[in-house]
Predict the 3D structure of the following.
Amino acid sequence: MGNLDGRVALITGAGSGIGRGTAIRLARDGANVCVVDIDEDGAAETASSVREFGRDAVVVRANVASKPQVQDAAERCVAELGGLDIAVANAGIARGGSVLDLELKDWQDQVDINLTGVFLTVQAAAQRMVQQGRGGRRPGGRIICISSLAALMAGAGTWGYSATKAGVQIMVRGWAQELGPHGITVNAIGPGVIDTPLAHGLAGDTGGPIRQALEQRTPVGRAGRPSDIAGLIAFLSGPDAEFMTGSYVLIDGGLRDARGPISMDASDPLVRERIGHMQSAAERRARLQPLIDER
């Protein structure tokens, strides 16, 4: 028996990384899961892992920047799983570039998914949680939004991503005020460098120069894992977090306050590996961009 038995969770960006790790953890703790992702194949793999725990899973292909698609995902969650108790707004993208030449579309895609997508997910989930709470049918709810360590800092080429993640922090504080009277808590999490497809260029390969440099710089001595974030989400989804709302929780292994040299020498193995990851990221972006453009 888990502390989430009988609960239903909707998770965006659940086809990989933190989203997949969260779906698996919440299923292990007893929840049924609505697996939402723009990548339907990835979502199906996650749903298969959820079912291994004897839980029900529904796969919904949706672009979180589309209100009709997000509303449909929430509606299917309620219709096919019997309710909506936990929502994890996790889907996000990163687009880097200088203010001198960043394409407007790259800026807009980042805002649409990282900010508008979080808003639409929270709106759709909260509407149904409030409706469920009337008459005491399924009172209360838990909403967790994924921000970032980047919300606390900015740098050349990454300021756009940082701005969207800082915006998530502010929205969560307002939503906590609005939804608290309905028994719904809203919190944000700020992951550091987690080994996921989105951040693989920062986490590097196991044993590679990027990973070694990160391990040396991070006080706990390793990169983050999706399971690290999933554990915190499980806590915020459960009964012990009833009094916690409007909070931003940083979980970065101490990286925020760590300092270390950053090499830009093209002959440095770390730099060469980073270039390789940038090429891989470009290939992943080319595969997903047509799906992002469908709204």
